[in-house]
Specification:
The protein is mainly beta and about 525 residues long. It contains 6 helices and 32 strands. The chain is globular. The N terminus is likely disordered.
């Protein structure tokens, strides 16, 4: 895959409980450092920002985020299943409907079966990306009056953005795409890097320019490439020596890595500029049409929606490609700041057009590309990185289902299994079981249930270690009674997460594998 497309979805989550196989604190690193969440586990600061910028009630914001989480997972599966027939995906303007473009009838049937709405199109997304790549190759000759170009999956085309009066120049440049897939759109956009200047916290470069922190990684943080070059020194918002740029790319890309000194501790949170922080719990990529929020040291937290991916921006300093386009406003000094969809890291602010008085368009560099290109590990809300792979031989082996069940805790006979654990659950917090570690199975059916305390609501997630991270493969929650989860899984290393959604108290977990 061309690294500039970066539309695959990946997850990196905290796993403090895997640093040893036997003697570990039970659920260290799983507690987010933030204000009390809503019943759905969403930080109230995120809901407040979505309500302000998208005119949503809290209930509407929660429902939208729930749909977007489902859509992200569904798109991952469909993209693989559809192959060349996949034409892209996007959410409707109200965030309630997932549309998936396909080039053939069998693909449309698979999309419909997945619960999404199929849209028949003439071109797969790979063809659109190829057209845009041809435009990227011709970008050095683009007129300064061309603001940029991007793949627009909703119209099954590549869009060239020309400033008013430059439509002819836009059409000439569009011809470099070589097909009828390119259309010209007129807009008064003049993108520039927002250079003047936790996620979101301010930092200073060589005691001069100001930018914003993107996301914490092991040893430092990521930010925008136009903020500094390797060797440039940084100070924090308190003007205390902070670190050094170890890597940077701009133009072409717009990312950088800052290594911090021992006086600074990277945290997996983003400043909400309202006296609190929002947790970062992974980096699952949100689809086009999803709500998204940005944090920056000039304008604080602002929200909007994802408009397009694989966008190229024609900055005065040169073109940058592979960006994500949004309708969120930003201003100088916000550069490098964090973009979140719910609690999932999305990218770092590159540049934009307009401001937060009139509104505008802002672009961000996808964070998963930065992590992959630089072999970095995202720090999540627990403050601990994900290991490269489970320790060899570590973790328990689940007893075969033919073995007699372990004795369940008193009063919990309705929830039994080969392994039983108990713990305390609180809204907004999560525990990894068994005992903060993982277990191995030979493959087949897995069954689990959780008895929640009276008045509490919990979710149970089964996660499998794959691709360098634990990824959720099955999830269930409860309205009344025990949470019950079943899944048919391949051999591998697994763990359960018990997530508090509302209320608090002692829970019991029982699980087994067949």
């Amino acid at each position: 895959m061309d690294r500039r497309r970066m539309t695959a979805i990946g997850v990196l989550v905290a796993a403090a409980g895997l640093t040893a196989a036997v003697t570990l604190p039970s659920f260290a690193g799983e507690e987010p450092r933030r204000a009390a969440p809503t019943a759905d586990g969403v930080a109230p600061e995120v809901l407040d920002a979505l309500g302000r910028d998208l005119s949503l009630t809290r209930d509407q914001a929660v429902r939208r985020l729930r749909t977007e989480r489902w859509a992200a997972g569904t798109v991952t599966t469909l993209r693989t299943e559809l192959g060349a027939a996949y034409g892209g995906s996007w959410l409707s303007s109200d965030g309630a409907t997932l549309n998936v473009a396909v080039t053939d009838a069998p693909g449309a049937a698979r999309v419909k079966a997945a619960g999404a709405v199929p849209k028949r199109v003439a071109r797969g997304v790979a063809e659109l990306d190829a057209v845009k790549t041809r435009l990227d190759s011709a970008g050095a000759d683009a007129s300064p009056d061309i603001a940029g170009w991007y793949v627009d999956v909703a119209t099954n085309s590549v869009v060239v953005v020309a400033r008013p009066g430059a439509e002819a120049a836009g059409r000439r440049f569009a011809a470099a795409g070589g097909t009828g897939a390119v259309r010209v759109r007129t807009a008064d956009e003049a993108p520039r890097p927002l250079f003047d200047v936790r996620g979101g916290d301010a930092f200073f470069i060589n005691n001069a320019g100001r930018c914003s922190v993107g996301f914490s990684v092991v040893g430092g943080f990521v930010t925008a490439g136009h903020c500094g070059r390797p060797g440039d020194r940084t100070t924090g918002s308190n003007r205390v020596a902070q670190g050094t740029f170890s890597a940077s790319s701009f133009p072409g890309d717009d990312w950088a890595v800052v290594e911090v000194n021992g006086d600074w501790t990277p945290q997996g949170v983003v400043n909400d500029f309202n006296g609190g922080t929002v947790p970062v719990n992974g980096s699952t990529e949100a689809p086009v049409g999803a709500s998204i929020c940005r944090s920056g040291s000039t304008t604080g937290t602002r929200c909007g929606v994802v408009q397009a991916k694989n966008a190229t921006v024609n900055y005065p300093e040169g073109t940058v490609t592979g960006l994500t386009r949004t309708d969120v406003c930003a201003e100088p000094g916000d550069s490098g700041g964090a973009w979140l969809s719910g609690d999932q890291a999305q990218g770092v602010t590159s540049g934009g057009s307009g401001d937060c008085t009139r509104g505008g368009v802002t672009f961000f560099q996808p964070v998963n590309e930065i992590l992959q290109r630089n072999n970095l590990t995202l720090i999540t809300a627990g403050g601990q990185p994900e290991p490269a792979e489970p320790p060899a031989g570590g973790g328990e082996t689940v007893p075969p289902a033919s073995a007699p069940p372990a004795e369940p805790p008193a009063g919990d006979a309705e929830c039994t299994g080969q392994v039983n654990r108990s713990g305390q659950v609180t809204a907004g917090r999560a525990q990894v079981q068994p005992d903060g570690r993982f277990f191995r199975v030979a493959g087949g059916a897995q069954e689990a249930c959780v008895v929640a305390p009276d008045g509490a609501r919990v979710a149970l997630e089964l996660q499998r270690f794959t691709g360098g991270a634990f990824r959720t493969v099955a999830r269930a929650d409860n309205a009344d009674g025990p949470v019950r989860l079943t899944a048919d899984t391949p051999a591998g290393a697994y763990r359960y997460r018990v997530v508090g959604l509302a209320g608090s108290g002692e829970y019991t977990l029982a699980f087994s594998a067949r």
